[in-house]
Write a structure and sequence with these properties.
The chain is mainly alpha-helical. It is flat, with a radius of gyration of 20 Å. It has a domain of 125 residues. It is 68% helix and 0% strand.
Length: 222
């Protein structure tokens, strides 16, 4: 069930979606009721397969290899993949506590992948910290709902939801600080785009649906 969607995402060369999906599945696996021996076995075999595919992909896809290397040494790739990393670092270094609302700086993917950089530069670190706090409350609330849910299947859905949401949030912010390679990773509910907004809205809808039935106990999983 995991490998079929994984290879569909992978063959479509949609690396961000493949990464998010993989993280979600493994988080749900480690929170499941399988024995630790089975979890370790499945994780080891699948992890080895993913590592082999990653090495093959980096050897064949030059631009993806350069993205990773540019993250470690952006000056060396300043004419290519390193340009965006250096540009984002420069913009973030100019952002003050109250921002630069009157300046006009070129920010790559200002409304999508680097929308957090845009908010930080124009409105300052105070608003950026407040934004991260508000977005983190969504993940915290999902965890609280999980603790109040009696059904195992409902708890697994919530674990998957918080994994999907958190990986987007963390990776997007890490891109702004140069800890994650620049890629198509949106900031939940903030980045411009129809599909990311609908996706996260459905995610919250699933959480609300589970919360509505939090007191139910399934005899199948109890």
């Amino acid at each position: 069930m995991f490998l079929i969607p994984f290879f569909l995402f992978f063959t479509a060369q949609n690396i961000p979606t493949t990464f998010i999906y993989t993280v979600m599945v493994f988080v749900m696996l480690w929170w499941s009721k399988f024995s630790r021996k089975i979890i370790m076995l499945v994780s080891g075999l699948t992890g080895g397969l993913l590592l082999a595919l990653g090495i093959i992909t980096l050897q064949n896809q030059v631009y993806q290899r350069e993205r990773l290397l540019a993250l470690l040494n952006p000056e060396k790739y300043s004419n290519g993949a390193g340009f965006m990393v250096l540009r984002i670092k420069e913009i973030m270094s100019k952002a003050g506590w109250f921002g630069n609302p009157r300046d006009q700086e070129f920010i790559p993917d200002a409304q999508t992948n680097f929308v957090f950089v845009t908010f930080t530069y124009y409105y300052g670190w105070l608003l950026a910290i407040g934004l991260v706090f508000i977005l983190s409350l969504f993940a915290a609330r999902i965890i609280v709902v999980k603790s109040k849910t009696n059904d195992l299947y409902g708890r697994l859905l919530l674990i998957g939801a918080v994994a999907l949401y958190t990986v987007q949030l963390v990776c997007n912010i890490c891109m702004a600080f140069g800890f994650f390679p620049p890629t198509a990773m949106s900031l939940p509910f903030i980045s411009y785009g129809l599909m990311p907004t609908i996706f996260n809205a459905i995610l919250i809808g699933v959480v609300l649906s589970v919360y509505r039935r939090k007191d139910f106990v399934s005899t199948r999983f109890s």
